[in-house]
From TrEMBL:
Protein name (Swiss-Prot/TrEMBL): Cytochrome c oxidase subunit III
Top-level lineage group: Bacteria
Species the sequence originates in: Leptospira kobayashii
UniProt membrane topology term: Multi-pass membrane protein
Transmembrane segments: 33-53, 60-81, 154-178, 198-217
Cited Pfam families: COX3 (PF00510)
Major subcellular location class: membrane
Keyword terms of this UniProt record: Membrane, Transmembrane, Transmembrane helix
Domain named Heme-copper oxidase subunit III family profile: residues: 1-218
Cellular compartment(s): Cell membrane; Membrane
InterPro entries tied to this protein: Cyt_c/ubiquinol_Oxase_su3, Cyt_c_oxidase-like_su3, Cyt_c_oxidase_su3-like_sf, Cyt_c_oxidase_su3_a-hlx
UniProt-listed CDD domains: NorE_like (cd02862)
Family: Belongs to the cytochrome c oxidase subunit 3 family.
Length: 218
């Protein structure tokens, strides 16, 4: 799944480099960086949990699994704040709700740019919409390019699909936690723990690619 998305991303990035560059400027790279650190920590705690299960240290293994689940929850909370702001300002494929619901593929681009220009000049409008002057300028750079919605299409599909994997992974880790607490896994049998651990490391690895491709491409 992600392989196909990465290939599509590379093709369209080569066709519309300015769209991807301007779009990445509207993302909060600091939130993306924090989420990267969170997932790296979760990778360590998951690996540690596997090691402790193999050694029969069920109590400390359970703590590591709980920490891994906590990291997954923190990742999704940060992603929630990112998504809600995107929907608020309207940087979603097909519309630009902050300026006008008709802006986007079906709207008049000149009118949309004029309204964003008004947003840039009006501190009151920016305050009402929780948008800084810098962000308004970046939004203007985005809407000024044809096919601007394409970047956000890739952003929501790739990060959304990754988020689904994070939630599924957290549920599987919870299942492993229950088995660990009940002593159903240990030095003699730890295959489920290793299997879930491998899945979680793949989730982390995919984000390692998504972060620079989406947040740092500009």
């Amino acid at each position: 799944m992600f392989g196909g998305l990465f290939v599509g991303y590379l093709i369209y990035h080569s066709l519309y480099p300015a769209v991807f560059k301007n779009g990445s400027h509207t993302l909060d790279w600091k939130m993306g960086a924090v989420n990267t650190v969170v997932l790296l920590i979760s990778s360590f705690t998951m690996a540690a949990a596997i090691n402790f299960v193999q050694r029969g240290l069920h109590k400390i293994a359970s703590i590591m699994l709980i920490l891994t689940i906590a990291c997954a929850a923190a990742f999704m909370v940060i992603k929630y704040f990112e998504y809600t702001h995107k929907f608020h300002v309207g940087t979603v494929p097909g519309k630009f709700s902050l300026v006008d619901p008709t802006c986007g593929t079906g709207g008049n681009r000149a009118d949309c740019e004029t309204k964003i220009g008004a947003l840039l000049k009006s501190e009151k409008l920016r305050h009402e919409n929780h948008v800084s002057e810098e962000e308004a300028a970046r939004l203007q750079a985005v809407i000024s390019r044809p096919k601007w919605e394409m970047f956000y299409g890739f952003y929501f599909i790739m990060t959304g699909l990754h988020g689904v994997h994070v939630v599924v992974g957290a549920l599987m880790i919870f299942w492993i936690l229950i088995k660990t607490l009940r002593r159903k896994v240990g030095p003699e049998y730890y295959t489920p723990v290793e299997g879930v651990g491998l899945f979680w490391h793949v989730v982390d690895l995919v984000w390692i690619y998504l972060f620079p491709l989406l947040y740092l491409v500009g």
